[in-house]
Specification:
The chain is an all-alpha fold and 99 residues long. The chain has one domain. It is 95% helix and 0% strand. The chain is built from three helices and no strands. The protein is rod-shaped. 0% of the residues are buried.
């Protein structure tokens, strides 16, 4: 009878060890999945940051380019507006808009 009792004790111990091992594997799997999700989230956030930074820089670059172009042609515009041709054109535009 003692031999049967040890056999049951051994079976319970084995089942307990298997349960602990399965619990450990489940915890490890959950941690691995969580770590992968965190990496994906971080990668996505980093990509979003890069895209928004590029868009902001492009917007500022466009503004600066427009200012540079405006200043580039400023002298030519002043010369043109002070010429007879521009005065004649302005006079023609005034007459056209009045009609």
């Amino acid at each position: 009878m003692g031999d049967c009792h040890m056999n049951t004790r051994n079976k319970v111990a084995i089942i307990f060890l298997i349960a602990i091992a399965l619990y450990g594997i489940a915890i490890a799997a959950i941690m691995l999945i969580q770590r992968n999700q965190e990496r994906l989230l971080l990668s996505s956030q980093l990509q979003d940051f890069r895209l928004s930074t590029r868009a902001a820089l492009q917007s500022k670059e466009d503004v600066l380019n427009n200012i540079a172009v405006d200043y580039t042609y400023w002298d030519d515009m002043v010369k043109y507006l002070s010429s007879k041709d521009s005065k004649l054109m302005l006079y023609g535009l005034i007459i056209l808009t009045r009609n």
